[in-house]
From TrEMBL:
It comes from the Bacteria. It comes from Lawsonibacter faecis. Residues 4-105 form the Ketopantoate reductase N-terminal domain. GO terms for molecular function: oxidoreductase activity. Pfam families: ApbA, Octopine_DH. InterPro entries: 6-PGluconate_DH-like_C_sf (IPR008927), 6PGD_dom2 (IPR013328), KPR_N (IPR013332), NAD(P)-bd_dom_sf (IPR036291), Opine/Lysopine_DH (IPR051729), Opine_DH (IPR003421). Residues 182-320 form the Opine dehydrogenase domain. This is NAD/NADP octopine/nopaline dehydrogenase family protein.
Length: 351
């Protein structure tokens, strides 16, 4: 049994807290004071019910806004927060860390770079740190604290930063999940479907999203044969970047979207019900475009590989939203690593 603190009281945080409590771990769910109402209501209800591809219920040992106490008492800290909060959350937990604790970022997206910079500045360089390849699972949380998980649970990639720490990180979290060590946080971040799925869905459906009044459902309203053809082209660009870096890409998400279109395919029964993006402020756009897609483009440029479709999607969505995503995004340039060659990227990120 591990003492685990989950930082982040959204859908993923609640669902993961329930799953790990089911497994017998001592789980604490916490977040900043901005989420006090959410935490207080969850504490009042106490038990989190699971639906979809997980069943039953789990009761965290504590649900609290006392971040200092929650992090201080934990062996393992899992941060299940939107990547836009990475700097905030890293600063929030850093004072309560020491070398006996290990930190895992649940959303991935190369957030380890941000956390590591903050930890180093706070004198916490010895804290073991890394990230999961994308979110643990797609999930939605209802007001009665039922967490519906949209796809079957399965192994997840895990990578540390610096990369030499990956074996230690995988061992530290061995009892938490079935993790597969990845050679780099770049491989972990870029090998999930969100790199392709969310920008394609946002670009092709921007007007429908904006006019939906919050009711748009990408996986019911926005998938078509043309969408799948774009998915394939984006995957081809991704494959070219992976080949330049010596990575092996996951298969194209084509099969997943063919299954979504097939109403008889029960694998996607719950996934089809997961709404969003209901506006152009949704995290599929405001998180994934600046923090995942822009990072991918900057790495592609360093590797000397053209990715015109990805660049076009960022330019189009920047124009539609009025937000220059690449200028403010998570990129090698904005992280102080502009001008790296392919060899230097591999040395920095793969050890």
């Amino acid at each position: 049994m591990k003492k685990i603190t989950i930082v982040g009281c959204g859908s993923t945080g609640h669902a993961l807290a329930a799953l790990l409590a089911q497994k017998g771990h001592e789980v604490c769910l916490t977040d900043s004071s901005a989420y006090a109402d959410m935490l207080n209501e969850s504490a009042r209800i106490g038990t989190i019910r699971l639906a979809g591809f997980a069943r039953g219920e789990g009761t965290p040992a504590r649900i609290t806004g006392d971040v200092a106490g929650a992090v201080g008492a934990a062996e393992l800290i899992i941060c299940c927060t939107i990547s836009n909060r990475d700097e905030e959350v890293a600063r929030m937990i850093a004072p309560y860390l020491d070398e006996s604790k290990s930190v895992l970022i649940g959303a991935g997206n190369c957030g380890s770079l941000v956390y590591r910079r903050v930890f180093d500045a706070c004198g916490r360089s010895g804290v073991l740190l890394g990230e999961v390849g994308g979110n643990f699972f797609p999930c939605r949380l209802s007001e009665d604290r039922t967490a519906t998980i949209g796809l079957p649970l399965g192994p997840k990639a895990i990578a540390a930063f610096p990369p030499r720490d990956t074996p230690r990180l995988a061992e530290a979290f061995r009892e938490v999940w079935e993790f597969t060590p990845a050679k780099s946080i770049l491989l972990a971040a870029f090998n999930g479907p969100n790199l392709i799925t969310h920008p394609a869905g946002a670009v092709l459906n921007a007007a429908a999203i904006e006019n939906s009044g919050g009711a748009f459902n990408l996986f019911q309203d926005g998938v078509s044969p043309g969408f799948i053809r774009l998915v394939d082209r984006l995957w081809e660009e991704k494959r070219s970047v992976f080949e330049a870096l010596g990575f092996t890409p996951a298969p194209s998400p084509r099969k997943m979207f063919e299954g979504i279109l097939d109403e008889h395919d029960e694998t996607y029964r719950y996934f089809r019900q997961m709404g969003g993006p209901g506006s152009l402020d949704h995290r599929y756009i405001t998180e994934d475009i600046p923090l995942l897609i822009c990072m991918f483009i900057s790495v592609a440029r360093a590797a000397g590989v053209a990715v015109p479709l990805y660049e076009s999607m960022v330019n189009l969505l920047s124009a539609v939203t009025g937000d220059d995503f690449y200028a403010r995004g998570r990129t090698l340039e904005n992280l102080g690593m502009g001008g790296l060659s392919r060899e230097e990227v591999l040395a920095r990120f793969c050890g």
